[in-house]
Amino acid sequence: MTRSGVVRILIVEDTPARQEILTRLCKDHAWVLAHTAWRAITLIQAYDFNLIFLDYDLAGPEKGDVVAAALSASRHHNARIIVHTQNAPGAEKIKKLLPRADLVPFARLTRDNATCKRFREELRKGADIDWRLVFSGEEKQLPAESMKTKEKKGGQGRS
């Protein structure tokens, strides 16, 4: 995340409806759209990104795995990458090239307003997204053992 709290995001997606949804999810941040592998690779070479949404099926002859190969050899290899494709075999090809990427199908990310809201809230904290929180809606809590230890030592547990 940058000093201003704005996450720099590359959205690699060719479907206009999905582009609209993803840009709305990222509206409080600096995002750029790419609809082809060639355009995504050009942007990756020119700019720094904290978070990259990557689809497999793109406009043009190249697919998302070509972008993944370029990412793995670039300075972005440590960026948070969300593979949001609905194409399971394509997602696996990308995952082989980018083992640290998060596989989060588009339908799961956008399944309801509450999930979208939790995602936006997590994104406000930076590119290191807590998917358990996004998908479960549960607040982060101390482990039960940790809370019991505090209570025994006379400390106050959570109320």
Determine the strand fraction and express it as a percent band. 5-15%
Question: How many beta-strand runs?
Answer: 5
User: Looking across the biggest beta sheet, what order are the strands in?
Assistant: 2-1-3-4-5
The helix-strand sequence is EHEHEHEHEHHHH
Describe the protein in words:
The protein is an alpha/beta fold. It is globular, with a radius of gyration of 18 Å.
Descriptive key words:
8 helices; 159 residues; 5 strands; single chain; 13% strand; alpha/beta
Question: Would you spell out the secondary-structure blueprint of this structure?
Answer:
Layout (H helix, E strand, L loop, with lengths): L7 E5 L3 H10 L4 E5 L2 H10 L4 E4 L9 H9 L7 E4 L4 H10 L4 E2 L2 H4 L3 H12 L6 H6 L7 H9 L7
Parallel strand pairs: 1-2, 1-3, 3-4, 4-5
Helix pairs in contact: 2-3, 3-4
Quick summary:
With 159 residues, this protein is an alpha/beta fold. The protein contains eight helices and five strands; from the N terminus they run βαβαβαβαβαααα. The protein has helices spanning 16-25, 37-46, 64-72, 88-97, 106-109, 113-124, 131-136, 144-152; strands at 8-12, 30-34, 51-54, 80-83, 102-103.
